[in-house]
Amino acid sequence: MSRQRSDEPSSTRYEAVVEKLRAAVLAGEFAPGERLHEVRLTGRLGVSRTPVRAALQKLASEGLLDYTPNRGYTMREFSVGEVVSAYEVRAVLEGLAARLTAERGLSEHDRAVMVQALHDGDDLLQHWQFSDEHRSAYGRMNASFHETIHAAAGSRLLTDMVFLCQQVPVSSPRNVVAFEEKDVRRRHDDHHRIFEAIIGREPWRAEVLMRDHVTSVKSSLVRSLSSPDAVRRLLDRVQARS
Amino acid sequence: MSRQRSDEPSSTRYEAVVEKLRAAVLAGEFAPGERLHEVRLTGRLGVSRTPVRAALQKLASEGLLDYTPNRGYTMREFSVGEVVSAYEVRAVLEGLAARLTAERGLSEHDRAVMVQALHDGDDLLQHWQFSDEHRSAYGRMNASFHETIHAAAGSRLLTDMVFLCQQVPVSSPRNVVAFEEKDVRRRHDDHHRIFEAIIGREPWRAEVLMRDHVTSVKSSLVRSLSSPDAVRRLLDRVQARS
DNA sequence: GCTATCAAAAATGTATACATTGTCTTTGAC
DNA sequence: GTCAAAGACAATGTATACATTTTTGATAGC
Fold this sequence. Notes:
- The structure is a homodimer.
- Chain A folds into 2 domains: about 15-75, Arc Repressor Mutant, subunit A (Orthogonal Bundle); about 80-240, Four Helix Bundle (Hemerythrin (Met), subunit A), CATH 1.20.120.530.
- Chain A has a 3-stranded antiparallel β-sheet with strand order 1-3-2.
- In chain A, helix 5 packs antiparallel against helix 6.
- In chain A, strand 2 and strand 3 form a beta hairpin.
- Chain A is globular.
- The first copy, chain A, has 10 helices and 3 strands.
- The first copy, chain A, is about 70% helix and about 5% strand.
- Chain A has about 240 residues and is mostly helical.
- Chain A has helices at about 15-25, 40-45, 50-60, 80-105, 110-125, 130-150, 155-165, 180-200, 205-225, 230-240, and strands spanning about 35, 65-70, 70-75.
- The interface of A and B includes residues 54, 82, 92 and 156 of A.
- The structure holds a DNA duplex (30 and 30 nucleotides).
C-alpha cells in the first residue's frame, strides 16, 4: 500500500490510469453496480488492457470497486450507512493517532508545521468569506494539520488506514465546505486544544479530543442529511466533483 | 477488497498464486528487503508473469510487500514497533466493532454462534492440554467469536481493516499459543463479559471491554518480548510457520 | 586504488494473441 | 408459451513478445 507523493508525475501508464479512473469514479461517471469493462476503458484511456487491469485491481483494493473472479469489476455502492461508519472508523483511528503522537512527542519540524496550520486557520477565520479559493485554502490547512499527526504517530498501518477511510466518497476532509461557519470555528478551536494536548504530552486527552473532533463532522453530516434537499445537494456535489 | 471464503477452491491461477505466495512470505522464505523477482517466481510457481504480477500487487495492497514503480516488489520489514502498533490499531477497531454491534443488536443466528463459541471455550478450558489439536480448536473458537462481532457491526470498511491488521506477521489471532494458561483463561472470561455487554445493549461497556481485551494480547506480547530467548522462540515460530 | 562512464544484461512495463469462462440468443422439445 | 440445451458472442484469464528502465560490471581515466 503506502502511496507516493501525489504531486509527482506518474512514471508508468498504470499510475496515470489509476489517477484518471479514480477521478472518473469520484466524479460519479459510473452508476453503482455498473460494470467497468476492461476493453471499453482501453479505448477511452488510450492504453492496453494490461495497465487498465492493474489500475482496476488497485482501485478495488482501495475499496472503490468490487471484484469477482471471471466477472470483472463493478462500481461499488456506498450507502449513507457506509459513509457514516467510515467517519466512525476514522474517529477511532485519528483518536489513536493523536494519542500515539502525544506519547511520542513532536519533532521540531512537525511542531512548526502544526503551529503554521493553526496560524493559517486563525487568519482564514478572521477574514471569513465564501469563495472557493478561501475554502480550498482552509481545506489544505486542515489536511496539513491532520496529516502531520498521522505521520507523527509513526505507524504505517495507521496512516494507510486513515487514507482508506478518506477514499470513501463524501468522507474526504475537503468536505468542510458543506457545513456552517459556526461549526468550522468550533472545529478550528478543537485543533488548538488537540495541539495543546499533544504538546503537553496528555495522550488520553489528545485521543478523546480528536475522537470527538472527527465525530462532530459525522454529526454535521448526519444532521445535514436529515433535510431532503440537503441530501440532494450533497449527492450533486459528489456527482459533479472533477 | 473484501475477501471470499478461503475454503473455496480458487477458480483462477492468480488466486492460487496469491495463497501460495502469502504462505511463503509468512513462512519467512524471503528476507526483509529481499526482492521478489517476477521471472524467478514464474519458474517456481509454474505460471506466467501475468498472474504472478497480479498476486504481488495484491500482497502489496495487503501491506506484506513494498512496491516501487520500475523496481518491483520487495519483502517488507516488520519491526517490533510495527507489530505492536498493529495491535493498538486492532484494539480500537475491534472496540468500535463491539460498540456498533451492541448498538445494533445481534441476530438470532449470530447470537447462537457466539453462545456456541463461549460454550466451546468453556469446554476447552475445562480439559486444558498442550496438544496442537487442542490449541488449534481454541484458535478456531476465538476466531469465530471475534469474526461474528466484526460482521455484526455491519461495516465492510471495518471488517476489511481488521483483516489488514491480522495480515501483519505475528499478529494473527492464532498466536494465543505463545501465552500462558492463566492469560488464556482471563481472556476467555473477557469473552463472556463482552457477550454480556452486547446482549445487554451496553455499547460503551462493550467497547471498553473489547479494547482492553485486545490490548492485553499486545501486553502479553510485549512482556514475552522482554526476555531475549522469548524473542528468539517467537521469531523461530514465524520463520518455521508453514 | 577509486570513481565515472558506458555498454550489456536483466528486470519491469506494455501490448497483444490466445485460452477459458460467462452471457445471451436461438432453437428445439414438451 | 415456457423451459432447457446448445452454440455464438463477448468478457476476463493467461501467456508471451516487445519496449523501457534499472542494474551490473567492465573499462577508462584520474
